[in-house]
Amino acid sequence: MAHEEAHVAHHETSLWSLPVGLVLLVLSLAVVAYFEWGWSLVGLILAGVALVLLVIGVIGWPMSTSQRSYGSFLMYVPLK
Fold it and tell me: How far is 80 from 70, CA to CA, in rounded Å?
């Protein structure tokens, strides 16, 4: 009974998944603007914004994981 009370689930969340998720929204708007509406400049700008969001999310997400206590993605290394 005491062991069950001592073990508490700990969920870690990261905000770095938000830019990666927004890539789908911005990229779909870029495709619609470029092909359907005929606004080629707006479509290209939105595609560039989607690319920047993807790069930011892909770079930031592993950094937030490595700051928690993982020195490598393959093995657990506690930071001192």
Answer: 11
